[in-house]
Amino acid sequence: MRDSVRKTLALGVGIVAVLAAFGGQAVAAPPPPDTGTPTPMVVGGTQATKGEFPWMVRLSMGCGGSMLTDQLVLTAAHCVTRTGNNTSITATYGVADLQDTSRVTRTSTYVHRSPTYATATGGDWAIIKLASPITGAALLPIATTATFNTGVFTVAGWGATREDGAQSRYLLKANVDYIDDTTCKNSGAYYADLIPAAELCAGVPAGGVDTCQGDSGGPMFRRDNSGAWIQVGIVSHGNGCARPGNPGVYTEVSTFAAAINQAVADLGGTPQQPGKVFENLTNVTIPDAGTAVYSNVTVAGVTGNAPSTLKVGVDIKHTWSGDLVIDLVAPDGSTYRLKNSSSSSTPNVVTTYLVNASSEVANGTWRLKVQDVFDQDTGYVDAWRLTF
Q: P/Homo B domain: which residues (predicted)?
C-alpha cells in the first residue's frame, strides 16, 4: 500500500509532470525516447521499447505481473482478494504501449493467493491462471536463493508517473539500488514493521526514482551469473513514491520460491528455469542497401540440441526498420528467418524472437545475419544474444 497503504493500484516508475488526454482520462505523456540503460539520475525512468521486457503483463485491476509459465502470471497478493475461481481479470501481454493493436489479451479463470499474506510470515504474492496459454510467451524465471538479492535492480511498469498521479499508457523502466534491511527499517516509522525474511528494500536514497501506484505485482529483476534476467522481487508497498529516504518494499521472491513453484505445479504448469545466455556486444555497421553482415556468438557447455523455444534477442539501431532482413544462422548453416523487410518506418529493432531450433546441436558458432535491402537509411547491430 503506497502512501502508508499498500500499493493497491500497483507502482509506477518515477515522476513525470506532463499530462495528456488518453481514453477520457488524464494520463502521463510519453517520456523522452530511451537513450540507453536507465540510471537512477533519470527522474521517472525512461520508456521501455517493445520486446525489451517481453514477459511483462498489465492486469485490468491496475496491477502489473510477469509470465511465470505460458498460462500463469505472477503478481502481488494485495492485487487480488482471495483464492478461487475468478473470471474478472484481463491480462495484456506483448506490448510496451497499451494501445498497440498487436497486444495479446487473456481473461483469468482462477487465482491462487498466498495463504501467508497479511500474517507475520508475510508473502505478498499471487498467481493468476489464464483461460488459455499464450503460445511462445517469454517467461521470467524466479530466484530460488538469496544470491541475487543485492546490487542494482531493474523495475518496470505502467503505473503512476508521479505520486497519486494517473497511470501510464507506456511501459517505463528504471534502476534502483539494494538497501539493506537495517537501513530500510531505520528509514522512518513506516518501515518499522519490515519483515526481513519476506521483504526486500530498494530505491535511490536521494529520491526521484521509484515504483508507484499501479505497478504493484510487477517484477523487480536483475541479471544472474549467466546474464539472464531473473526475478528477485515483486512490487509490494512503500511510503509514497520516489520520496527521498523512503525506499520501495518488494516481496522477497526467493523466500517464497518453493511455495510459488508448488502452486504452479498444482495449477498445472512448470516454472521457467534460468537459461544460459551467450551474447555479442560488438557493434557491426550495416551497409546501406548493401551486402549482408554477420555477428557471431559461440555457444559452449550446453548439452544436446537447442530448445524448441530458443530466444534470440536483438538490439539493432537503424533509422528505418522496414529496410532490414534478419536471419539466424545455425552452426550447420541452416537459416531461420527472423524478420522480413516491410514498409515500416519506425526506427530500431529491439525485440526477442522465438525459434524452434530443436533439430540443431546447441554448441558451435551461431550467426546473426542482417541485410539492408533499401537505400537512404543506415544503422548497426548494437548487440544480440541467445538464451538456452
A: 269-388
